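seq:
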Amino acid sequence: MKVAIVHDWLIGGGAERVVMELHKMYPDAPIYTSYCSDEWRQRLDGKVVTGWLQHFGKLRKFMALGRIWWFSHLDFSGYDLVISSSGNGEAFGIRVPEGTTHICYCHTPTHYYWRNYKQYLASPGFGVFNPLARLGLRLLVGPLRKWDFRAAQRVDHFIANSSHIQSDIKQFYGRDAAVIHPPIDVARFTPAPASERKGFVSVSRLVPAKHVDILVTACTKLNLPLTVISSGPELPRLKAMAGPTVTFTGKISDGEVAHHMAHAEALLFASFDDFGIVPVEAMAAGTPVIAYQAGGALDYIMPGKTGLFFAEQTVDSLVAALQQFDTKSFNANDIRRHAEQFAPEVFVNKMQTFIERSVAKNQ
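struct:
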């Protein structure tokens, strides 16, 4: 088959891991995207194709209409299969000719059009440009939702990265989707023995949506050791509310992150994520996860076996879970084996099976 890959933008993150595995599956396929960093252009062996949007740098964040135009005018004549990898972007809005199969791996229906519209309106995340972003969102959300819905109807087959996103695709687009979880590099994690584990760890961008303040406040209240890894605009506020048992590392290397994960009693996770790669990485290190009971976490946390849930996104709810948690009741090897079902080779096998069946249906 002649194959093309399409992605919103390539700057680093969980969605890019999907693109990397697709590239390994189809190394000759061009990868069309609105913007690509030099690092990712190199990592993808120079197969990346960009256009005029590449020249706008950080201004690209404001250019949803430009991305809609660019993606919808790409020419896929002669291709048998086009795989779009899309979430909070417009890549799935491509048009393919008759006889070409379009499979969309959907990371999420665009948050700021649908599920999280009010949240983005309250805090767009553009700093001094927030007033402009709010005005633009209010004026354009109606037409953009209509375009987004129509674009979803052009997709031949949807894949969701979690059961939560499968439900959102049905709710907002009226489409059915298979679930294939994203690839996690479980091989880079090695569980540490129970005797070497101490305290809790959080690995997350320090932004309001991740709710790290819940973790910091709960551990401070219970006088529990917590290591907060990563950085972000919330760091000064979190440091101000943290007690003496909370440590902040800032941004550290992947190897150091893996070490902290493997030597923690549990990873704390308060975010409502579409999937959530970090908790699965922690489980690959044999570490149980105490997570907010929502989103992608519902797919991989087995209460009492791989972790615990707390029912509400509040300090009191997490405190109750921490008081219930007993590190001795979890087996690191069992948790590690559970995480292996998210390995890249599992993702590739499931994708190959789905692609073969989908292309056959369209013939």
